[in-house]
Amino acid sequence: MGFVVAFVAAWFALFIFYGMNKRLSIVENAFVFLASMALGIHLSWFIVEEFKWIEMTKDGLSYAGVLLYRIVLFPMVFVLVMNAVYKLRGIAGQLLSGVTALASLAVLNMAFVAYDMIRYTKWNLFYETLVTALLLLIVYVLLRGFRKAADKRWAA
């Protein structure tokens, strides 16, 4: 059942992205997707494989759901948030979009724990949310730097 949750959530995020009025260009969306995917995969590798703070399931289909979450859904949520942040003018709306994304990812992590896809050993949902918020901030700073570099490149 965990795979179904991850699959439906990934398709839902892709559907929202397809239907939304995007503020970022294709290149910027690809940059956010790839940066968040690379950072998320590397961080989860450290947490799961090196530090053994989270145990993954041994069931193949459930593990495929976790991989679908880390490779597709997690970066797509970052892309949706960055589009919303650059679309909204006020700081309150930007923070609300970030908090909504964090809450959505926290609910998905709770579902994964409920379906025994992951088991927290020396980790918990608060740490996961804190690390995700830090990753959101890092990707935001990287995107700002990317946009400034692209503006300087095309202005010259």
State the shape.
globular
Distance between the termini: 53 Å
Q: Output the number of helix runs.
A: 5
Q: Whole-number average pLDDT?
A: 95
Total count of strands = 2
Q: How many independent structural domains?
A: 1
- Low-confidence regions: none
Q: What is Rg? A: 16 Å
Which sequence of strands runs across the widest sheet?
Answer: 1-2
Describe the sheet with the most strands: 2 strands, antiparallel
Helix fraction, binned, reads: over 70%
Beta-strand share of residues:
under 5%
Question: What can you tell me about this protein's structure?
Answer:
The structure is a single chain. The chain is mainly alpha-helical and 156 residues long. It has one domain. Helices cover 81% and strands 4% of the residues. The protein contains 5 helices and 2 strands. The protein has helices at residues 2-19, 26-50, 60-87, 91-114, 125-155, and strands at 54-56, 118-120. The protein has a two-stranded antiparallel sheet with strand order 1-2. It starts with a helix and ends with a helix. The model has no long low-confidence stretch (mean pLDDT 95).
